[in-house]
Amino acid sequence: MNCQSPIVVALDYPTMAQSIEMAKRLDPSQCRVKVGKELFTTSGPAILDALHKLDFDVFLDLKFHDIPNTVANAVSVAAAAGVWMVNVHATGGRRMMEASANALQQRADNKTLLIAVTVLTSMDQSDLLEVGIDATPEQHVKRLATLAKSSGMDGVVCSAQESSMLSTELGKDFVLVTPGIRPAGSDSGDQKRIMTPAEAMAAGSHYLVMGRPITQAIDPIEALTQANKSLGVSL
Ligand SMILES: O=C(O)c1cc(=O)[nH]c(=O)n1[C@@H]1O[C@H](COP(=O)(O)O)[C@@H](O)[C@H]1O
């Protein structure tokens, strides 16, 4: 599908039926969709087939984090399922990321983007300190993103607050996927490092992950339309 928008709608629902009901209301030229831990745990891989049949590009967000062999095999199975994007945790380290990148390179005509999660957008400096990291989110994101790039990743998940810095440091082709997107005035929920859709694009983000501001809106389609309009996406 030739999608016009950088928005990826997080289908964070407890049942496959609810997610498909929402997907049928969305237009695959106006957004991509993300399948995360909640939806995948309830639906299994059938959800990927169902969303592909509706013509969506699918980001499989299971944030793999394990030994290199296990993650490389999991990433390979995800690519075989035809997903557009899959992610691993950068903190799994260089050997884990290299093994994953190699696994995808060995697939003929691989099209799946391999992305590493840096510092979760729900974390701030005090959260990092509690897990033993004495650095600002920006410093730690830079360190992990640099490692991810040199380990063969296509890009990273970070907050849009780090997009400008990463785009300068690692180049404009290194894909920046940014959750924690909140239109002005919307509830931040558990997200700490947030930006509006327009700010995130101006900062250099390539893709904007949006869940609750769309899925929990009184009118989800109108919420997506407004976000797309704020980005100048032709509707
Ligand atoms: O990898 C992700 O997609 C992700 C990484 C991250 O650092 N922060 C983050 O929020 N996400 C995901 O992005 C989505 C954000 O949802 P909302 O906060 O509802 O917009 C959720 O599905 C999260 O699992």
From TrEMBL:
InterPro entries membership: Aldolase_TIM, OMPdecase, OMPdecase_AS, OMPdecase_bac, OMPdeCOase_dom, RibuloseP-bd_barrel
Molecular functions per Gene Ontology: orotidine-5'-phosphate decarboxylase activity
Pathway given in the UniProt record: Pyrimidine metabolism; UMP biosynthesis via de novo pathway; UMP from orotate: step 2/2
Enzyme class, first EC level, given as a word: lyase
Superkingdom in the source lineage: Bacteria
Annotated binding of substrate, by residue: 12, 34, 61-70, 121, 182, 191, 211-212
Active site: 63 (proton donor)
EC number: 4.1.1.23
Keyword Iron: no
SUPFAM superfamilies associated with the record: Ribulose-phoshate binding barrel (SSF51366)
Record field: catalytic activity: orotidine 5'-phosphate + H(+) = UMP + CO2
Similarity annotation: Belongs to the OMP decarboxylase family. Type 1 subfamily.
Function: Catalyzes the decarboxylation of orotidine 5'-monophosphate (OMP) to uridine 5'-monophosphate (UMP).
PANTHER family referenced in this protein's UniProt entry, alphabetically: OROTIDINE 5'-PHOSPHATE DECARBOXYLASE (PTHR32119:SF2)
Complexes and interactors: Homodimer.
Name of the protein this chain belongs to: Orotidine 5'-phosphate decarboxylase
Organism this protein belongs to: Marinomonas vulgaris
Taxonomic lineage: Bacteria, Pseudomonadati, Pseudomonadota, Gammaproteobacteria, Oceanospirillales
Gene assigned in the entry: pyrF
